């Protein structure tokens, strides 16, 4: 699996005028693979945003654009879910300790 640096370099090399649909599909396949294993979702989302900006506005790329949008939404929702989980964990009520009472006779 390529690293995020390699994926980012590949996306940077894409050109909406000269790159063909196969290069875009290969780059997107690598982004999808990375999205299933990477923990740096913020950086991956930035790479995906850059990728989506470079997709030509042609009918042949319509499906790829929709897939990229879906993946971006999934990454955003996963990131939001992780943040909400951390917030809930930080503000979870802590169990109260009962003060022990001595035996009074």
Top keywords for this entry?
mainly alpha, about 100 residues, single chain, about 0% strand, 4 helices
Structure description:
This protein has helices spanning 4-13, 21-37, 41-54, 62-90. With 105 residues, the chain is mainly α. The protein has one domain. The relative contact order is 0.13.
Topology (elements, then pairings):
Blueprint: H1 4-13, H2 21-37, H3 41-54, H4 62-90
Helix pairs in contact: 1-2, 1-3, 2-3, 2-4, 3-4
Oligomer state equals: single chain
Domain unit count: 1
What's the count of strands? 0
What is the succession of H and E elements?
Answer: HHHH
What number is the mean pLDDT? 88
Taking all Cα atoms into account, the compactness measure Rg is 23 Å
**Total helix count?**
4
Termini separation comes to 72 Å
Please state the structural category.
mainly alpha
Strand content: under 5%
Helix content: 55-70%
Write down the overall geometry. elongated
Major sheet summary line: none
- Low-pLDDT stretches are none
Question: What's the short version?
Answer:
This protein has helices spanning 4-13, 21-37, 41-54, 62-90. The chain is mainly alpha-helical and 105 residues long. The radius of gyration is 23 Å and the shape is elongated.
